[in-house]
Design brief:
It is a single chain. This protein has a 6-stranded antiparallel barrel. A 4-stranded antiparallel β-sheet has the order 5-4-2-7. The two termini are about 55 Å apart. Helix 4 runs antiparallel to helix 6 and helix 5 runs antiparallel to helix 6. By secondary structure, it is α+β, with helices and mostly antiparallel strands. It is built from 8 helices and 12 strands. The longest helix has about 40 residues. Among the domains are: about 110 residues, Efflux pump adaptor protein, beta barrel domain (Elongation Factor Tu (Ef-tu), domain 3, Beta Barrel); about 90 residues.
Length: about 325
């Protein structure tokens, strides 16, 4: 008779093993083992009754915050691969190079032309010579010992010499720009990491060709922070805002973390009636793996009960299972 007083929603949540496959009744006399069994049932019922069903438990999965396929921007042959799969890399680190023999030789030629001053010196000397002749002809013209035609021809020759000097200087400036262009081409044949991350996959080895149909050289992932994705029912998604803090649990490890809502889709999926939600989790030392199941606790909308929000906050601030600082031989970065 006591069992019938328990709500059906609670009765379904009580493990049958606690009841030995039977329902509790009011026995005329209870032995010691039956008393202990009944106590376990009552404690279980008490815990289920005081749980907070208003907090939604939404299952999801973790994924890298960024996955980048690094491709060569030019065709060629791979000269070197400087990293291995699973290696941690930093932003700007050199990861691989393509063959650069021809470009390096071209760069040396451009460097020599950029620093060459022979053309400028010759043009400057020629201009000074014509300028000196022009000055003398002007003086003779004032004394009547030179014709106007001779003066005009000297002025034209002096102007041409000055133009040649300017052309020599422009050629040197163009050589400097050409040197920078070749340097940029060389840099395009060096593949660097755009993020702080981990090498997930290496597709090429030294000596392999880079073709337009297969330009990818390696794949990087960013695991700190980590992203978790969930499909939240529309009523519960109404309480989530970008930047708000939420509790995410990891059932397999018993850990939980406080994350920040990164994205709440403005569109509800018509088939499932759920809203895509992304949460960013701090993942220093690779504490949480990518690709594992996780559970998002979504508090009820405002006004649905103050005790629910309080219980959710208490769970978020309760002591959690954590590991100590990584040792020298421990690998904490997981993909």
């Amino acid at each position: 008779m006591y069992w019938k007083l328990v709500p059906s929603t609670i009765r379904r949540r009580v493990p049958n093993a606690l009841l030995d496959g039977s329902r509790p009744t009011a026995p005329s006399h209870i032995d010691g083992s039956a008393t202990r069994r009944m106590a376990i049932v009552l404690v279980t019922l008490l815990g289920l009754t005081h749980s907070n069903p208003a907090v939604a438990q939404i299952e999801g999965f973790t994924e890298p915050h960024a996955t980048i396929d690094l491709a060569a921007t030019e065709n060629g042959v791979v000269a070197s691969i400087l990293v291995k799969e699973g290696e941690t890399v930093s932003k700007g680190q050199l990861l691989a190079t393509l063959d650069t023999d021809v470009l390096e030789t071209t760069l040396e030629v451009a460097r020599a032309q950029m620093h060459s001053t022979g053309k400028i010196d010759a043009a400057q000397a020629d201009w000074r010579s014509w300028q000196s002749k022009l000055d003398k002809l002007r003086e003779l013209r004032t004394k009547g010992h030179a014709s106007q035609t001779e003066l005009e021809r000297a002025e034209a020759d002096c102007a041409i010499a000055k133009a040649r000097l300017e052309m020599a200087r422009e050629d040197q400036a163009i050589s400097a720009l050409d040197y920078k262009r070749i340097e940029a081409q060389l840099e395009r044949r060096r593949i660097r990491s755009p993020i702080d991350g981990i090498v997930l996959k290496v597709f090429k080895d030294a000596g392999e060709a880079i073709l337009p149909t297969s330009p990818n050289v390696l794949t990087l992932v960013e695991l700190d922070p980590l992203r978790a994705r969930f499909s939240v029912p529309t009523p519960q998604a109404a309480s989530l805002r970008p930047g708000s803090s939420v509790l995410v649990r990891f059932p397999e490890t018993g850990r939980q973390a406080i994350g920040a809502v990164e994205f709440v889709s403005p569109v509800t999926d018509a088939k499932s009636g759920t809203v895509p939600v992304a949460v960013v989790l701090p993942n220093e030392h690779g504490k949480y793996r990518s690709g594992v199941r996780c559970v998002l606790e979504v508090p009820p909308p405002a006004g649905a009960g103050g005790s629910t929000s309080e219980n959710s906050a208490n769970r978020a601030t309760a002591p959690q299972k954590t590991d100590g600082p990584p040792g020298p031989n421990r690998k904490d970065n997981h993909v």
